[in-house]
Design a protein that fits this description.
heterodimer; B: 258 residues; AzlC family ABC transporter permease (chain B); transmembrane helix (chain B); transmembrane (chain B)
Chain lengths: 111, 258
């Protein structure tokens, strides 16, 4: 899944993403005294952004290719289930990635 | 550590060390994933230096690897980092006496962890009334700069490692695994679970759409679902909604500015 974008496009994304992120970080730190609070409606929406965006990002990576039972036991799904279990137990990135990689390779070996 | 450094700075560094166990593998993945997605080593490290926000970096890498529309990649980075608006607003009172340049520097290194540690400390200091304003950024910078250095070093190691490892190891699979590691704790109650499930379903259904519309629409519909379930849940539980959800306790009492 290597990108076919050229260096200029990739750098454009990096710079635009970086500037926007810096603007978000600086926003209230810079403006404090004029604007001192995130509007309540925005704060309320932001609470659900991580769950929604991360789920939308990750779901297509694990979606089975067909709606059959056999497609549900792909190595990726085994790894994903192991990772979710580890994340739930430990809430730790290291253990989650380790469990997911172990599940993936074990399933590739066994299936 | 050099004892000439301000004590607050050293304490910040010290308090950050346990967190590095979680940060280092994340940074390694950011480096490995960049190379796997076809970014050059310099671009991968550049992403870490310029953006310096892990989840959004991995999202950008993942989407670039899929040749998603460039605007969608940037938009996704922005959406993932929007939570920093809350950090910025919440920590701003402690930085208000600093010069514009120092404030800009503090803003650049603002992360989840730096925010969480510094705010816990500043809130405690205010209670015991011992903090002197001039020293305030030192603790924050001790935390934030430690994280910055380790993040960059970890990315570089990941780039080198990722380039050397055979494809059969499937290291690129670590990217969705990191998203899962972040997603699971983010799903803490019924509204956030609903937000995640709906977002995932819409994203899968729309996976073939152009411009990664499935991702964008899924995220938006997910957030709306979370708000709707929250609203409905409060009404269902307490009849006339007592003003805001239960996790509003972190809200600090800010005055002035008008």
């Amino acid at each position: 899944m290597a990108t076919s974008y050229g260096p200029l496009s990739v750098w454009a994304v990096i710079v635009a993403g970086g500037l926007a992120t810096f603007a978000i970080r600086l926003s209230f730190i810079h403006l404090f005294g004029r604007v001192d609070k995130v509007p309540p409606w925005l704060e309320r929406a932001l609470v659900y952004v991580p769950a929604a965006v991360l789920a939308a990002l990750v779901a297509p990576d694990f979606a089975p290719e067909s709606a059959t039972l056999a497609a549900l036991v792909s190595p990726e799904i085994v790894g994903g289930v192991a990772a979710v279990a580890a994340a739930w137990r430990t809430e730790d990135v290291l253990w989650t990635v380790a469990a997911g990689m172990a599940g993936l390779h074990l399933a590739r070996f066994l299936l | 550590m050099d004892s000439r450094l301000p004590p607050d700075l050293r304490e910040g560094v010290r308090d950050t060390l346990p967190l590095l166990l979680g940060i280092v593998p994340f940074a390694l993945v950011a480096g490995v994933a960049g190379v796997e997605a076809g970014l050059s080593p310099l671009q991968t490290v550049g992403l870490s230096v310029v953006v310096f926000a892990g989840a959004s970096q991995l999202a950008a890498i993942e989407l670039l690897g899929q040749d998603a529309a460039l605007g969608v990649v940037v938009l996704t980075v922005v959406v993932i980092n929007l939570r920093m608006l809350m950090y910025s607003a919440s920590i701003a009172p402690y930085f208000r006496d600093l010069s514009a340049r120092v404030r800009a520097g503090c803003a650049y290194v603002l992360t989840d962890q730096a925010y969480a540690l510094a705010l816990a400390r500043y809130a405690g200091e205010r209670d015991s009334d011992r903090g002197s304003t001039t020293r305030r950024p030192y603790y924050y910078l001790g935390v934030a700069l430690t994280l910055w250095i380790v993040w960059q070093a970890g990315t570089i190691v990941g780039v080198v490692f990722g380039a050397a490892v055979p494809d059969g190891w499937r290291l690129g699979f670590a990217v969705p695994l990191v998203f899962l590691a972040l997603l699971v704790p983010a799903v803490s109650d019924a509204p956030s679970l609903a937000a995640a499930l709906v977002a995932a379903a819409v994203a899968v259904a729309g996976a073939g759409l152009p411009f990664n519309a499935g991702l964008i629409v899924g995220a938006v519909v997910g957030v709306v679902t979370g708000i709707a379930v929250d609203e409905w849940g409060i009404r269902g539980a307490s009849g006339s909604g007592g003003g805001g959800s239960s996790d509003g306790s972190a809200e600090t009492d800010r005055t002035g500015g008008h």
